Known about the structure:
single chain, three-stranded antiparallel beta sheet, ANK repeat, Ankyrin_rpt-contain_sf, Ankyrin_rpt, GFRP_sf
Amino acid sequence: xxxxxxxxxxxxxxxxxxxxxxxxxxxxxxxxxxxxxxxxxxxxxxxxxxxxxxxxxxxxxxxxxxxxxxxxxxxxxxxxxxxxxxxxxxxxxxxxxxxxxxxxxxxxxxxxxxxxxxxxxxxxxxxxxxxxxxxxxxxxxxxxxxxxxxxxxxxxxxxxxxxxxxxxxxxxxxxxxxxxxxxxxxxxxxxxxxxxxxxxxxxxxxxxxxxxxxxxxxxxxxxxxxxxxxx
Length: 231
C-alpha cells in the first residue's frame, strides 16, 4: 500500500507499507508505518503487543485493516493475489468468516449470490469446515441443504466431521453422520475423526463414532497408532 504525499513531511515523497494476514484470520500485521500512523491505527484496533520487527499486529481481519487504511488516505498498489480484486477477496473471505461465527443471514446472502456452498479458501477449507468446527448447527444444515459436500477434504485431508470431532461438537457430529459423512476418511496424518476426538479428550464423541462404526477402532494412523494406543 502507498501513503499519499500529503501525509509525509517531504512533499512529493511516497513510502510503501505492507499488510500481511490470512483472509480468514482475526489478526493482521502491518509493516513500515510511521509512529503517527501506528498511533492512529492503534486507536481504532487493539494492538496485541507482540514483538514484530518494523511492524505491529492488530486485532482485526486484513480486509478491515485495509479498508481502514483506505479511509486514512492509503491506496492499494499491489497484492499477492493479482488475479483477484479486493471485492472478490472480501467476498470469498466473507462466507468462511460468516460460517465461522454463525452469521446465518450473511451465509444465506452469500450463497444466494454465488450458489457455491463448497467454495474453498487457500487451504482448501469450505464454509462447512468452519461451521462444523465452531458448532453452528443452523449454518451446517443450510450448507448441506444447499448441496455442500459433507465429505469434502482440505489440502491436509481434514473433513467437517473431523473438525467437529476435534472441537467436541457432539450435535454436529450426529448431524453429519446422519447426512452420510464418512468416519473412515483419514487426513494427511492418517487420523480419522475418532483419532482427533480421542486426542482432544472428547470421549463421548468417541463413543458416538464407535457406535456408528465399531471397526473404526481398528484404523491406524501414519505412525501405526490405533485409537486405543493414544494417551
